[in-house]
Specification:
2 copies of one chain form a homodimer. Chain A has 414 residues and is an alpha/beta fold. The first copy, chain A, is 41% helix and 21% strand. In chain A, strand 12, helix 14 and strand 13 form a beta-alpha-beta unit. Chain A is globular and about 65 Å long. Chain A starts with 7 loop residues before the first helix and ends with a strand. The mean pLDDT of chain A is 94.
């Protein structure tokens, strides 16, 4: 467990040491630790609420704003949800040791490619204290040590939650860094000898800071500018349900749609109808010229709208002349997260899936399914929009590296 | 094809555009381009030798040194070998489109995880001009655009080789950056909008420069400080063959052994015998106290020897008291490349494979097998000692990312 008397380098070195032990722990031992953490969270609810109250009071004094205060606030229900989340992670299959490939070479060498923990993972996050527990539990289950660096506004909550988790894990396995300021962050993300991966969960400012300073590999778990494209051959009833779901069901998350593209041939039949459904749900629509002609009263979209991740009940609406134009729009404005086409035509579906460069490309389904749980991976620590190592949901298996285990009978190379 | 009139940013933007087309090219088209490149290399041998002569003359004038001049020099045989290498890459299976996982969710969504090209790969390398062609061919086959940045000492050779390759590939697919100085490198490795991955092939200076400047993800293809550990239960005849092979067969490569560790119980029986075999092959041995006692005349190892990748006919020799001590030595001094144990005991083999943190962990086989060809992957662009994305040989499949293709019948999330 981290204390403020240890330097960042010392915490990371202790984590590296712990990672050696964690890599060899069997599943039962890891699950027992997770169960103990879940029990302790529930048993110490009062203590956690007291620590959280300190953060809330400090937040009110520094005018943190209602939205951030709400994200920061814990109550009995939220603590119980954290404990339940830990128990869910304990119930997931252990990825460590999974043989992902195996073959025998002509010379008799038997080669297995086997999942192993990455080692030490640094998770850098903002606001919500539950990330402390989620990240600790996912890393523990996947045999990784974790160094957590939350926001200073949640310092008291994170410190206690991290301490509770650390008390039930091997020494050094779970640490919470304390100390305000960017220096701690910069030091953390340059510990190349002891930290194997940085996973940030935060906004563009955090991303920019990491881009500038990090020498440890980073998986950017970015938010998404996702599109739903309604092709000329689409089942318009299905298209309406998908567009509505992708925008309205939970607008504040990264896999919600931000732009609706409609083929010109079905725009007149489709747009007025979906517009009134969306408007009835409180969605503000911003359209291009053709969309505005078809939907009286729709606000005109500015150039910036096509690149905006609203994360709210706002939707940009564009009319395109062809599948090619739709793909070109997605390529120009998408962030590589989740993109959907609604179509009856096999060729259009295949072409959209082949040419759109995104983690998840949907045919006739809502973008909202991009999620570790929905993909059957269990919990996730984020959603990668970059291409290396992990793309899409980052679950337990994505927190692993692999190694090759090679068995011989004295083979030498000639 | 790059010309000196294009800026680094323009070259990378053109590569990104080309990568869209490359991602959709079918295997036949890519193989036809590779065949044309191989033919052109042979047909234009005279022209290539002329360009190479310019580099060799400049190298001699600037006192480049015999070893580097030899690496730089091309002849008809080396050019024919390059062409043969390109034809071998054409003959390999196309990784693009390979379904690496596929499943149906309870709600009927069908999800496939499919290999796709990474996009634009920057390869930064030193000396040998054949890397220009190897890298271009591997990237083309895997559907990636490539931006090449060789050393200034091979500028004329690389420029012509890159131009020949580019003439038979889609516009922008293969580019060679010209212009000396670290500015070009720094600009290249910060093109986050258009470059998806940097692969360096070079020494520690290049690695340090990239660590400092790169914002694009980098796969470090480092050399290796590899160990052979002879356990107390080892078949000493087998151990002798493996140790000899790992050191002597090709000492200048990254998967050659640099340290031999021997269990105390078999040191007296094993060390004098392997020492005389190795010394007969011209190997200089540097031992710890116990090793020196057992092999009269062996030079004592300094602390630095345990961390030195000799890449030559020198071998450090240590005697350890236990399997645990051997593993601890490997963990402290290894670079995560290739490590071998020779043992008859199942538990020792399993424990060594589980606890040693390296890309390739061998039981009863030479470390020299860590190689794309030996693993059945065909050609390789390097060997990764880092853990993210690719670990071990980097072949065609490691030059790919994946995406999820999801097919539905109107599914929405509730």
């Amino acid at each position: 467990m981290a204390t403020t008397t240890q330097s960042v380098a010392e915490v990371c070195a202790a984590a590296k040491l712990a990672s050696r032990l964690l890599a060899t722990l069997d599943t039962q031992a890891k699950n027992a630790a997770l169960a103990a953490i879940a029990d302790a969270l529930e048993a110490r609810t009062g203590e956690i609420l007291e620590a959280n109250l300190l953060d809330l009071e400090a937040g009110r004094e520094s005018d943190l704003g209602d939205a951030l205060l709400d994200r920061l606030a814990l109550d009995e229900r939220r603590i119980a949800a954290m404990a339940a989340g830990v128990r869910q992670i304990a119930a997931l299959p252990d990825p460590v040791g999974e043989v992902i490939e195996g073959f025998r070479r002509p010379n008799g060498l038997e080669i297995r490619k086997v999942l192993v923990p990455l080692g030490v993972i640094a998770v850098v996050y903002e606001a919500r204290p539950n990330v402390t527990i989620d990240a600790a539990a996912l890393c523990l289950k996947s045999g990784n040590a974790v160094v957590l660096r939350g926001s200073s506004s949640a310092a008291n909550s994170n410190e206690l939650l991290g301490r509770i988790a650390a008390e039930h894990a091997p020494a050094g396995a779970i640490s919470v860094l304390q100390g305000a300021g960017r220096e701690v962050l910069t030091e953390l993300v340059t510990q190349t000898a002891n930290v194997d991966l940085v996973i940030p969960r935060g906004g563009e400012g955090l991303k920019a800071a990491l881009m500038e300073h990090a020498t440890v590999p980073v998986i950017y778990a970015a938010s998404g500018n996702c599109h739903v494209y309604v092709d000329s051959s689409a089942d318009l009833e299905m298209a309406s349900e998908i567009a509505y779901n992708a925008k309205v069901q939970r607008p504040g998350v990264c896999n919600a749609a931000e732009t609706l593209l409609v083929h010109r041939d079905v725009a007149a039949a489709f747009l007025p109808r979906i517009a009134s459904e969306l408007q009835a749900a409180g969605v503000e629509l911003r359209g291009d010229d053709l969309a505005c002609q078809l939907v009286p009263g729709m606000a005109p979209a500015s150039a910036a709208d096509w690149d905006t991740e609203y994360l709210s009940l706002t939707l940009a609406v564009g009319v395109v002349g062809s599948l090619e134009e739709a793909i070109a729009h997605v390529q120009a404005h998408g962030t590589g997260h989740s993109e959907a086409i609604v179509t009856r035509e096999r060729d259009a579906a295949r072409r959209f899936q082949r040419e759109v460069d995104a983690a998840c490309v949907y045919v006739n389904a809502s973008t909202r399914f991009t999620d570790g749980g929905e993909f059957g991976m269990g919990a996730e620590i984020g959603n990668s929009t970059q291409k290396l190592h992990a793309r899409g949901p980052i679950g337990l298996r994505e927190l692993c590296a692999f190694k090759y285990l090679i068995e011989g009978d004295g083979q030498v190379r000639s």
